[in-house]
Design goal:
The protein has 98 residues and is an alpha+beta fold. The protein has a domain at 33-97: OB fold (Dihydrolipoamide Acetyltransferase, E2P) (Beta Barrel), CATH 2.40.50.40. It contains two helices and three strands.
């Protein structure tokens, strides 16, 4: 009887810790999955206001490139394999090295 109570308490405690840990990560703004479901490969370079590079991490194995459009502020995921995206990234990287 005592071991059943102990085991039940242990399971409830572990479940509580797992839930509260996940909630605290989300509340801190930590993404627990890839942000990009689809990517844009068509050239939209002149509409881009800002570009964010997210390297592979424990929550997403892919490099994600998220562009914010100038006029609408909409975020668009860019295809890192598209030639025009590679040029944009190279331009950003070379301007940072100066």
């Amino acid at each position: 009887m005592c071991s059943k109570v102990f085991l039940t308490s242990l399971v409830v405690l572990l479940a509580f810790l797992a839930i509260s840990n996940g909630m605290s990560l989300r509340s801190l703004g930590v993404e627990q999955h890839c942000r990009c479901i689809q990517t844009e490969s068509r050239p939209i370079g002149r509409h881009i206001g800002k570009v964010e590079l997210i390297p592979p991490n424990s929550h997403c194995e892919e490099t994600e490139i998220i562009a914010t459009l100038k006029e609408s502020g909409q975020e668009v995921c860019l295809d890192p394999k598209a030639p025009w995206v590679k040029k944009v990234i190279n331009k950003i990287m070379s301007s940072r090295q100066r």
